[in-house]
Write a structure and sequence with these properties.
Blueprint lengths: L4 H22 L3 H6 L7 E11 L2 E8 L5 E10 L2 E12 L13 E7 L7 E8 L6 E4 L2 E2 L1 E5 L2 E9 L5 E4 L5 E5 L1
Antiparallel strand pairs: 1-2, 2-3, 3-4, 5-6, 6-10, 7-8, 7-11, 9-10, 11-12
């Protein structure tokens, strides 16, 4: 059996198409992007997805190795493929409680993710104080997620500095942080 150049080229194209389809189908979801995260950013349980635009999603999750850590990953959609474009720091998860005077009411992490536009910030706030009912940053209320006994506030803001305020259920300001 003689293999002609035309048959050889067709065979190569079929092989390339086969592996191309395998690549696309193995990278076609946000979950597939999370599974490709490397230590120390391996994704465990997903807590919340925040859609920034049609092609950009922030996924907030527990770290796979240490589930006391809250982390986020920014996932960009390129056609049918999802790719992690930014892994950010970690924030310790703390169950809210009644605090003594002088104890820290919340922990916050602002993740700058656009090198060209330093004003874009993904915000994660974990409430240490059981009285915290809302968090406002740059005039924008962050989304509250009650997860496994934790009070977590998440959002996307444009900011010049990292300034946020925390409030109780009656709207009284409990603290203002820079």
């Amino acid at each position: 059996m003689k293999i002609t150049a035309k048959k050889f080229i067709i065979a190569i194209l079929i092989i390339l198409l086969y592996f191309g389809l395998i690549f696309i189908f193995s990278h076609n979801s946000i979950d597939s992007a999370l599974k490709r995260a490397k230590p120390p950013f391996e994704a465990g349980e997903v807590i919340f997805n925040l859609q920034l635009d049609d092609n950009l999603t922030v996924v907030f999750y527990r770290n796979l190795q240490d589930n006391s850590l809250l982390q986020n990953i920014i996932v960009q959609k390129y056609g049918p493929i999802y790719k992690a474009i930014s892994h950010n720091g970690s924030l310790s998860l703390v169950k809210p409680k009644k605090l003594k005077t002088g104890e820290l009411r919340s922990n916050m992490l602002c993740s700058w993710f656009d090198k060209k536009d330093q004003g874009k910030c993904i915000v994660m706030v974990v409430a240490n104080d059981e009285n915290i009912e809302s968090v406002v940053m740059e005039g924008k209320s962050l989304s509250q997620v009650n997860f496994d006994g934790y009070k977590i506030f998440l959002g996307f803001v444009r900011t010049e500095g990292v300034i946020y305020s925390i409030f109780d259920g009656e709207g009284n300001e409990l603290g203002h942080y820079v």
